[in-house]
């Protein structure tokens, strides 16, 4: 795997594509166990990210992801803004001076991002938040020897689906407690799109 | 007199406007800055708005932040980390009562530490 500035740009654009396409679905998920703004928040935020990164030139992947992070923090709103903002900021910091980015550096960076989300949200695994996708993905990447896009996508999907069976302990859904069981966590679904977009972008044939 | 400033953070612009009205009935001097809603005035919270409010409320004696539900505290924490102002603290107290108590104390010249102690005792 090799993540260049161009691939990074393609990754961000693919995330935006997916989020715009699933905007209403994400909002429906959030309506069930939250305040129903997740799709709107994410669509607004990633639209702004695309606008921002299109208008600039980047020396390396780290710079690119930093701009994405700052845009997410100020434009997404909600809890997911500071959380995804922190995730991308940690990716950026961890990938400083690494260009192009290779597989070991990338898995370390995802580890830092997962840790960042946990700290920012004061959340642990199993509390029905996006942590339930980021932590298993960081572990998976660290244990896998090489980058396998299809496997990455499958892992992210099953981590996301597993949030359905658990009870929320953090975020808006926590107010519902066990009534949140049976519903997917919206932030985990959008985290899945982020990893799915990565897998798509880094497919060899692309 | 220089007073400790108060920043009100809520998902709703109307909530913070209302609290400010309640406080202004009893005190006209304490700096109160509002960070209600998103940058488009919708329901939510926004880091940039909070940072701007911290700047507005700081007259040299420090600033206390009050927040409501969900992401408000998380965004307040990020804003404190990102803001260049030194004496900025997040108050762990209910938004309406906490901000009211803090403003009254700030109005009689109490320091940040003193106000935080009062809040700690009361809530
Ligand atoms: N404390 C937390 N730690 C980790 N993730 C969290 C936390 N709180 C919320 N989340 C994630 O954020 C998602 C919700 O994002 P959304 O954009 O809808 O914000 P929100 O909860 O509506 O914010 P707000 O509290 O401002 O209304 C959840 O599905 C969950 O994955
Ligand atoms: Mg929401």
UniProtKB/TrEMBL annotation, chain A:
<dbReference type="GO" id="GO:0004371">
    <property type="term" value="F:glycerone kinase activity"/>
</dbReference>
<comment type="subunit">
    <text>Homodimer. The dihydroxyacetone kinase complex is composed of a homodimer of DhaM, a homodimer of DhaK and the subunit DhaL.</text>
</comment>
<dbReference type="InterPro" id="IPR050861">
    <property type="entry name" value="Dihydroxyacetone_Kinase"/>
</dbReference>
<dbReference type="GO" id="GO:0019563">
    <property type="term" value="P:glycerol catabolic process"/>
</dbReference>
<protein>
    <recommendedName>
        <fullName>phosphoenolpyruvate--glycerone phosphotransferase</fullName>
        <ecNumber>2.7.1.121</ecNumber>
    </recommendedName>
</protein>
<dbReference type="GO" id="GO:0005829">
    <property type="term" value="C:cytosol"/>
</dbReference>
<dbReference type="InterPro" id="IPR012737">
    <property type="entry name" value="DhaK_L_YcgS"/>
</dbReference>
<dbReference type="InterPro" id="IPR004007">
    <property type="entry name" value="DhaL_dom"/>
</dbReference>
<comment type="pathway">
    <text>Polyol metabolism; glycerol degradation.</text>
</comment>
<feature type="domain" description="DhaL">
    <location>
        <begin position="6"/>
        <end position="200"/>
    </location>
</feature>
<dbReference type="GO" id="GO:0047324">
    <property type="term" value="F:phosphoenolpyruvate-glycerone phosphotransferase activity"/>
</dbReference>
<dbReference type="InterPro" id="IPR036117">
    <property type="entry name" value="DhaL_dom_sf"/>
</dbReference>
<keyword id="KW-0319">Glycerol metabolism</keyword>
<dbReference type="Pfam" id="PF02734">
    <property type="entry name" value="Dak2"/>
</dbReference>
<keyword id="KW-0418">Kinase</keyword>
<keyword id="KW-0808">Transferase</keyword>
<comment type="function">
    <text>ADP-binding subunit of the dihydroxyacetone kinase, which is responsible for the phosphoenolpyruvate (PEP)-dependent phosphorylation of dihydroxyacetone. DhaL-ADP is converted to DhaL-ATP via a phosphoryl group transfer from DhaM and transmits it to dihydroxyacetone binds to DhaK.</text>
</comment>
UniProtKB/TrEMBL annotation, chain B:
<protein>
    <recommendedName>
        <fullName>phosphoenolpyruvate--glycerone phosphotransferase</fullName>
        <ecNumber>2.7.1.121</ecNumber>
    </recommendedName>
</protein>
<comment type="function">
    <text>Component of the dihydroxyacetone kinase complex, which is responsible for the phosphoenolpyruvate (PEP)-dependent phosphorylation of dihydroxyacetone. DhaM serves as the phosphoryl donor. Is phosphorylated by phosphoenolpyruvate in an EI- and HPr-dependent reaction, and a phosphorelay system on histidine residues finally leads to phosphoryl transfer to DhaL and dihydroxyacetone.</text>
</comment>
<keyword id="KW-0418">Kinase</keyword>
<dbReference type="GO" id="GO:0019563">
    <property type="term" value="P:glycerol catabolic process"/>
</dbReference>
<keyword id="KW-0808">Transferase</keyword>
<dbReference type="InterPro" id="IPR036662">
    <property type="entry name" value="PTS_EIIA_man-typ_sf"/>
</dbReference>
<dbReference type="Pfam" id="PF03610">
    <property type="entry name" value="EIIA-man"/>
</dbReference>
<dbReference type="InterPro" id="IPR012844">
    <property type="entry name" value="DhaM_N"/>
</dbReference>
<dbReference type="GO" id="GO:0016020">
    <property type="term" value="C:membrane"/>
</dbReference>
<feature type="domain" description="PTS EIIA type-4">
    <location>
        <begin position="3"/>
        <end position="123"/>
    </location>
</feature>
<dbReference type="GO" id="GO:0047324">
    <property type="term" value="F:phosphoenolpyruvate-glycerone phosphotransferase activity"/>
</dbReference>
<comment type="subunit">
    <text>Homodimer. The dihydroxyacetone kinase complex is composed of a homodimer of DhaM, a homodimer of DhaK and the subunit DhaL.</text>
</comment>
<dbReference type="InterPro" id="IPR004701">
    <property type="entry name" value="PTS_EIIA_man-typ"/>
</dbReference>
<dbReference type="InterPro" id="IPR039643">
    <property type="entry name" value="DhaM"/>
</dbReference>
<dbReference type="GO" id="GO:0009401">
    <property type="term" value="P:phosphoenolpyruvate-dependent sugar phosphotransferase system"/>
</dbReference>
